Structure formats: C-alpha cells, structure tokens
Amino acid sequence: MRNYLSIQDIDNLPDWVKEARELKKNPRQFNALGKNKTIGLLFFNNSLRTRLSTQKAAMNLGFEVIVMNFGSEGWALEYADGTIMNEGTSEHIKEAAQVVSQYCDIVAIRAFAKLQDKEKDEAEEVLNGFKKYASIPVVNMESSVGHPLQALADAITIDEVNTKPRPKVVLSWAPHPKALPHAVANSFVEMMQLQNADFVITHPEGYELSKAITKDVTIEHDQNKALENADFVYVKNWSSYSDYGKVANQDSKWMMTKEKLGSAKFMHCLPVRRNVVVADAVLDSDQSLVIEQANNRTYAAQVVLKKIVSSL
Ligand code: CP
Prior knowledge:
The protein is an alpha/beta fold. 37% of the residues lie in helices and 14% in strands. Strands 9-8-7-10-11 form a 5-stranded parallel β-sheet. A 4-stranded parallel β-sheet has the order 2-1-5-6, sandwiched between helices. It has a two-stranded parallel ribbon with strand order 3-4. Helix 2 crosses helix 13 and helix 7 (148-161) packs across helix 13. The longest helix is centred in the C-terminal third of the chain and has 21 residues, at 290-310. It is globular, with a radius of gyration of 19 Å. The relative contact order is 0.17. It binds phosphoric acid mono(formamide)ester. Phosphoric acid mono(formamide)ester is lined by residues 47-50, 142, 150, 269-271.
C-alpha cells in the first residue's frame, strides 16, 4: 500500500482489524521495520490523540519521528497553480512537499476543513497537494473530509467488544457550541458500510451528511426510535452540510444520556464536551468505550504504517 488517505485504501477490513489486534498483543514485534527510516508528522491543526498515538505507533515500528506544528510554525502555503504570490502565502506546496520528501520516508498530515467554502474543503488542497507533489507515501491524520485512522480504531474497538453476528450501530448527532467538521462522521459512516451491521444515522433535520458518503444508509430523525435496541451508539457533532459550516441547532435534547443509551456501549472519538455532547453519567460508566478507542488509535496507525513501510 502506498498511501492511506481514506477508508477506500482498506483492501480487507477483517484482515486489518485482526492484524491490529495481533500488534496490540506485542506492539514492538516488528520494531526493525522502521529502522533507519523517518516519518514526518505535520499538524496544521491541534491534536492530542492523533499526535501521540501516531508517534507511538511509528516508534513501536522503530521509526525516527519528526513532528512539526505546520499551522503555527511553517510558512503559509500556496496551493493554486500560476498564482502571483505577492500576498499572504510564502511557499508553494510544490516546493514544500518535495522538501519534506528529502527528510522523510513517510509523511502524515492533519489539515481540517475550514468550513467556509465547501468546494475548497472537498478539494482537500493540503492532503492532495502532498499526494501530488511529495515523492513519499502520505497518511491522512484527519483531513477536510475524512479521519480514516480514527475510523479504523473504531472498527478495532467494536470488533473487540461485539458479541453479535450483526450488531445494531447508531451514529447520533449531538449539540455543540462551535461549528465542527464532518470528517469523523464521514469516515465512521464509510467504515460501517464495510461492516456487517444494522447501521442507522440519527440527526435533526438539516444535518444530513453528504449523500455521496451516506448513500443508502438509513436515516431516522427520531433519536429515541433510532436508539431502540442499539448495541453501539457513536455520538458526534457536525455542523450543517447543506448550510455549509453553520450551527443551526443546539438543542440540548440531543445530548446523550444514560436513559437514552440503555444497555448500549457508548463511543466518541474525543475530545468531547461533557454535559453538552454527553452526560457525565455515560462517560464515567463502564458502558463508555472512549478510552479504548483512544488506545486503539496506536494500533490503527501501526497497522497502516506497517503496511506502507513493508511496500517501500
Ligand atoms: N480523535 C482525535 O483525532 O483526537 P485529536 O484531535 O486529539 O487528535
């Protein structure tokens, strides 16, 4: 495998999950694979889990790791061809991506949606710019449209806990005071389309995700009805997609509570706003899988990096 940019790069999900669970038992067993190799982790946005888990995954495989907060420390990048660069941007992605390729064997990028311009966000200029101009493999650590490392960790977590041949999994929108991107929800939806699950999305009207992502997944606007008999409930806020990037609803009735969760397991990618997105009683209960999801980020990243480095 050359790049890990989206869920579409997963050729066989059950095999990947199995491999990740094997790596989890003995994380350092392939620590010679990354010897004398360097991975660059470039962050255009903040992170806790992605930064530490991807670094740890790389270290488990024996890589040297360079981390750069590109958003605050790098030159402002230009992405358009033929631009007269006499305004705010100082360096073109053409040079930047090639320069990073001189120092690293793999580059991983975090660059969120700006939520101002749907077309521009969906063009994924940072991730695709690196894919186009870097001469090394590129890994998506959350882009405008997707967060495939998170979704892989989520699939590993469900596999570890699930006891049913076809569990019911619900993705439930939650309120949030700020406009958040669609990336986590998008990749979770795409991941669930690869799973044998009874999958339902619930959100207020006006919060439909891109139809190109949801395709024929069941959407139920009545949250209580959607949650009936759920085995796993994944809670996440996203801003409006149709009224792009706007916060149209902050109805606290959509917050996840113990009563609504029933006997299901609770999932969230973190960070999460307590008592806005989800009640303390849920997060602090043994039904919450959020810490194991965060733990599994390491093994999701490790299986991805192992596959890439094995093909170099
Ligand atoms: N879930 C996740 O990606 O967390 P961070 O934003 O802290 O990396």
